[in-house]
Amino acid sequence: MTEANGTPAGLVPVPEDEPDLLRDQFLQLMRYPRLIAGGVLLGLLGGAWLGLSTADTYVATSDVRLRVATDDPFSATQSASKLDMNTERQDAGSRRTAERAAEKLGIGGQEEAFLSGLQVTNPPQSQVLRFSYTAADPQDAARRANAAVAAYLAVRRQDTEATRDSMIKGLKNQLNPIAKQHEELAKTLTSTSPESDFSVKANLLNKITELNDRISKLDSLDMTPGKVIRKATPPTASDGPGWTLSLILGGTGGLALGLLFAWVRLVFDPAARSEGDVARALRAPVLGSLPRTDPDDPLLADDRDDSPLAEEYRSIAYRLAYDRRFADRRRLLVAAPRGSSRTAAAVAVNLAATFSETGKRVLVVEADLRRPFLTQELDARELSRPSWTDENPGGAADEEWPGRRRLLVDAGESGGFELVPGARVRNVARSLTSPETSRLVAEADDVHATVIVLTPPVFAYADALALVDRVDGVLVVCDPRGVHRAQLARLRDLIVGAGGTVLGAVMHRGQDAMPVRDNRGRGRKQKKGARQEPRAAEPAPRRREEPTYIRHEHDDQPTLGLQTVSLPPDRQ
């Protein structure tokens, strides 16, 4: 029984902690070192450009505190709201100010060049304008900043005085007719004049007095436009962060940019890049991850105690042995999604060696009838024991697969296992679905027997799907970088739809290259350009063990045992 998500019944999946998820995501980002290195390189180039562009530039700054024209500069009721600092800032950076400053500097006609180096800002919540000028020479930068301040103050004073003079002129234009009327009325008045004439004279006098007061007030205005609170001086150091800080900032920004590139690549990468991706796509656990090996290495791993590859195969076998879905039937189909079947074959034969190490009778069936190769990769000898075809006269002939041929594979100290080698046939589908093949898989009904079936890649041929309903348990062997998550999900749907169960997955890293072979069919390493020396004579093979039937005390079924025999001279 399994849950809907593929988890064995009775086992509650433990959610990953947030630090584990972050660590897994970070490790996945590290799978794109070129993108990260490219981002860092771009950042360093940007930092170098920043350091180079600011190495010979100097900035001089001058601050001016503005004020409005007033007749009483010490009055506490003077309001600062009369100043629109945004308007004043735009006026300070206008072309009119630049023309006056350029004229003062003797560079008339270069107003645009002058404005390109000028920057006027207003610190928040203040009546201060800050003039910053950038130039290649520190003396020139200070001189131009002070010239811009002086030009702005002069323009602002001129505008204020022009406004005052205009107001005074208007008031005088109002005053002159009233004063003339008052003089004419005063000449005609006598002691006998009516009281109304004296009242008119008094009103005219009041208007004259009011206008004179306003004119006097305008004449007494303090027209100072502002005060320079910091005069620009030649800077002692160039503007910018400097070479060291520029490179540090560029490298940091480049690293962030590289991580962003890697994250975008990870989001849109369809490949299964981690164990979590494979497990989620197959809805089955990852039973092991094989270390990187050389394609020319033999299929059977070295069974020494310190061999990490052999220990990894043992770990996978033990995890399968404790899985009730496999332990109940002891049938296993090993297949790869795509590519070559070499790594899947290595997994199949090493699992067989491990199971035989625990006392099981193991049968490996090479169901790859299109490109069989196990007999060339394994050290195997013909097995002389009765097979089920001898007891079933109506079975397949010797030349038809699976036939009567069986081989005994020597697995070193682990013992040995039987192999039904693959063979090229005319009709693959008929051979895989024949009753003889079903009887071959049914040998796992013996409680002391295990059957492992090796098939070609599922997406290359449908051979594996023809055997899924009889084998049930499927072990997927894949390179996560060579298969897409959608393909793994589709693979699981095909297996489940054919009546099977995905027991788990075994991951590897690019180990599917076929090895170079010598004339004896065995893999060997060959360097480019190396001369082929005459091959030395190989030592005599070790003594082989051939199975016989023995009985256990607790079981009435015959079980495969091992005995030592001597090989004939023609087979040594």
Brief sketch in words of this structure:
This protein has 18 helices and 17 strands. The chain is of the alpha/beta class and 572 residues long.
Helix fraction, binned, reads 40-55%
Spatial shape = rod-shaped
- Runs in which pLDDT lies below 50 for 5 or more consecutive residues are 1-15, 386-398, 516-572
What is the average per-residue confidence, as pLDDT, rounded to a whole number? 78
Q: What is the strand content? A: 15-25%
Tally of strands: 17
Provide the gyration radius in Å.
48 Å
Structural class: alpha/beta
CATH H-level superfamily title of the largest domain? P-loop containing nucleotide triphosphate hydrolases
Question: Class of the largest domain in CATH?
Answer: Alpha Beta
Number of domains: 3
* N/C terminus separation: 50 Å
Strand arrangement within the widest β-sheet reads 5-13-12-6-11-7-10-9-8
Report on the biggest sheet: 9 strands, mixed
- CATH architecture of the largest domain, by name, is 3-Layer(aba) Sandwich
Count the DSSP helices: 18
CATH fold-level name of the largest domain: Rossmann fold
Biased composition (Basic and acidic residues): 85-100, 509-521, 530-557
Transmembrane segments: 32-52, 243-264
InterPro entries: Bact_polysacc_biosynth/exp, P-loop_NTPase
Region (Disordered): 78-100, 509-572
